Amino acid sequence: MRRPSTALAVVVLVLAAVAAVLLTRPAAPAAPPAAPPSVGRLVSSTALACPDQPPGSGVSPTVRVGLAPGLPGVHRSGTVETGPVSGGSTARALSRGSLVTMPADGGPEARATGAAAAGLFGARTERVPGKAVAVTPCVAARARWWFTGAGAGLDHSSTLVLANLDPGPAVVDLRVLGPDGDVETVATTGIVVAPHTVRRFALADLAPQTDDLALSVKAERGRVAASVTDAFRQRATAPTGREWLSASEQPSRDLTVSGLPVKAQRRTLLVANPSELEAVLDVRVAGRSGTFTPTGLGEVTVGPRAILPVDLTGLLPTGEPVAVRVTSRTPVLAMVRSVDPTDTSDAGAADPLTGPAAAVLVPGTTASVQLTAGRSRAHVGLTSYAASGRRVHSARLTISPTATAAWSPGAGAAYVVVSPRGSGSVRGAVSYGGGGGGVASVPLGALPGRELRPRVVPGLR
């Protein structure tokens, strides 16, 4: 009977010792306060380059710039300077919501400071009535660019346009990938683009006799605004389609190629793999009801440092908007080339919208805003405007997870503003086509708005 009493006493002593230690420990320091969310302030300056390339016979180019309305906290108008990159710009007062035309030659540039810097957008549009349409946005300069689906052959040729908007020189290196890997090129490193100048490079002079290429533009010093114009025909007797290729900043493991025309004679997915590893792709289609794997498409692999064409003709639904999703453990680049009787449409990968986006429309064509939701339901507000800023049509869309929906801006609209709402991710593009002849596509990208900056708070002493 004495043993249990002894054991109980030992337990009591141990508990008492632990309690004494806890009671005599110094108090733990208070947890630091949660970091405050980042705060944003309106951008103070924006400079956009609208590419300038001799348009060819029968082509009517137009460059338009505007100040998008409907941005949160942005209401004031301002002054925008437009003119050639080389100088001699003209200052014009733009009201919020208006869209104006500027000269299309001389490497046109649009600059805005103060109130006009937020929401500045523009585009170059080209038309051959009844035959072809080409559209490309005016872009800000940066250090890295990728273009997929370029060519340097007899039936497929591309031209790279580089603009330096800054007061200092830019030094650029080019890299070209072909079906068999890196393409041997001439004079593609250490290219100097002088301040306020535009330089053009025919890819046939850099990598001749190659029909499908991926092109990297890397500014080792400074930055440039890069664009690629593309001419393609299926065979020697077919009409030549014209388009501007969509740009990507870097490869990704998850791509959504958006803006495909609902009808096409032929569709080709082109995937570029810049890495040293083989890329195994999962190719799926995001349609009206969700995402599915197209029947008849087997495993797709892309070798290191190569570009691969994948025939999608007959594998996609017709008569409805769709997007092509490409996922891979190895970062890749992708685009879809669609061929109609007189033209081609080069749809590129669209980034998730982090804020409102705007796209210029082309008179005489039918535009369709195509949006694809991520893993959760997405909510989007859409509004089209006349060039004067008058509202033409508006709607709110709710898009099911991984599905694609389309919206028409309505007759008489000059541009459209797309505003994501809520937490759901959404990507998209504008597809141009219809009875006017020709097809084109432009991915949607967020407008210049607010710069996110971390809020600094005093540390604990």
Description:
The structure is a single chain. This protein is mostly beta strands. Helix content is 6%, strand content 50%. The chain contains 2 helices and 36 strands. Strands 20, 21, 22, 23, 24, 25, 26 and 27 form an 8-stranded antiparallel sheet that branches. β12 and β13 form a beta hairpin. The radius of gyration is 27 Å and the shape is globular. The N terminus and C terminus are likely disordered.
State which percent range the strand residues make up. over 45%
What is the averaged pLDDT score? 87
Based on secondary structure, the structural category is: mainly beta
Q: Span between N and C termini?
A: 58 Å
Shape: globular
Unreliable runs: 1-39, 454-461
Q: Please tally the helical runs, counting DSSP H or I stretches of 4 or more residues.
A: 2
The number of distinct β-strands equals 36
Main beta sheet: 8 strands, antiparallel
* Helical percentage: under 10%
Radius of gyration: 27 Å
Write the layout of secondary structure elements.
Blueprint: H1 2-24, E1 39-42, E2 45-49, E3 60-67, E4 78-84, E5 90-94, E6 99-102, E7 108-113, E8 120-128, E9 132-137, E10 144-152, E11 156-164, E12 170-178, E13 181-182, E14 191-193, E15 197-202, H2 203-206, E16 210-221, E17 225-232, E18 241-244, E19 247-248, E20 252-257, E21 266-273, E22 279-286, E23 291-292, E24 300-302, E25 306-311, E26 323-339, E27 344-348, E28 357-360, E29 366-373, E30 378-385, E31 391-399, E32 404-407, E33 415-421, E34 426-433, E35 440-443, E36 450-453
Antiparallel strand pairs: 1-36, 2-7, 3-6, 3-8, 4-5, 4-7, 8-9, 10-16, 10-19, 11-15, 11-17, 12-13, 12-14, 12-16, 17-18, 20-26, 21-25, 21-26, 22-23, 22-24, 22-26, 26-27, 28-33, 29-32, 29-34, 30-31, 30-33, 34-35
